[in-house]
Specification:
This protein is an all-alpha fold and about 280 residues long. It is built from 11 helices and no strands.
């Protein structure tokens, strides 16, 4: 049931990026991130490295997801990181060789809209400040690293996406698709979770932000966005360690089976199978 409820909350918002805005690059970045999370949970470091490289190749803002490699056993971490770097280099070097100005794409600026969290934080620049993109990446990596250190590695995508939402000058609805995907990862990987609380909270915020534009001024929506993002980041960093862990322990043979059983017990191939009758001659 957890998988069903999480999917019901996530899929309508996912349509924003997959069909309404048709941002294939963002959709690929998020899909490959989920693949990387699944590979880490299954203790398959090289598959995780390839998926992370594909995610970064799809969209540069996905670079923060590489913090997932810190979850891997130390002896495999360096090789996985090298494989990720090689995958990014193979995809981008031809473009850099053909035109070195490709690196200037990171300087592209968009308008700082009135309902952005960036304006709510006091940044009144007309468009993207020069420090904004690096700050998004650094904040996401820092919070994600804290999550890994505190045993909450399943929240790495959520830390990166929330940092982006907090410091982005735009408020396109498809940005929220990444948020819902990230919260779904947290809910599905957290053992003993019965309800998708993170995903439900993200959906509630999305509905308020999307459909209350006539009730609140743009500045009010910006404050709501900033408050939600800051609350999420504060919980990821400061929530006390108690109750069930946030994610399965990587490296144990039963990790994948435990994840599947907690998320969708009806899909567990070993669950509720009738006892086999003894063979008679």
């Amino acid at each position: 049931m957890l998988l069903l409820f999480t999917g019901m909350l996530t899929l309508p918002v996912w349509c924003q990026v997959a069909s309404h805005f048709t941002h294939l690059d963002d959709a690929l970045a998020l899909a490959f991130c989920v693949a990387a999370v699944a590979a880490v949970a299954a203790d398959r470091p090289y598959l995780a490295a390839v998926a992370l490289a594909a995610s970064i190749d799809s969209k540069p803002w996905a670079l923060g997801f590489v913090v997932l490699l810190l979850v891997l056993p130390r002896e495999r971490r360096v090789r996985a990181a090298a494989l990720t770097g090689a995958g990014v280099a193979v995809a981008w070097l031809p473009f850099l060789v053909a035109d070195p100005r490709t690196l200037q794409l990171g300087r592209f600026r968009i308008d700082n809209v009135d309902d952005s969290a960036l304006r709510a934080l006091g940044v009144q620049a007309a468009n993207t400040p020069s420090w904004d993109r690096p700050a998004q990446l650094l904040l996401g990596v820092a919070v994600a690293a804290v999550c890994v250190a505190r045993g909450r590695w399943s929240a790495v995508p959520l830390a990166v996406v929330t940092s982006r939402l907090l410091l982005d000058p735009e408020t396109y609805a498809y940005y929220s698709s990444g948020l819902l995907v990230a919260t779904a990862v947290v809910d599905l990987l957290r053992p003993a979770r019965r309800l998708p609380l993170w995903t439900a909270a993200a959906t509630a915020w999305f509905l308020l932000d999307r459909y209350c534009s006539g009730l609140l001024p743009p500045e009010g929506l910006g404050l709501l966005r900033a408050a939600y993002c800051l609350t999420v980041l504060a919980v990821l960093v400061g929530a006390p360690r108690r109750g069930a862990p946030w994610a399965p322990t990587v490296g144990r043979p039963s990790t994948t089976r435990a994840w599947l059983r907690s998320a969708a017990p009806e899909c567990d191939s070993g669950a509720r199978l009738p006892a086999r009758a003894p063979r008679t001659r």
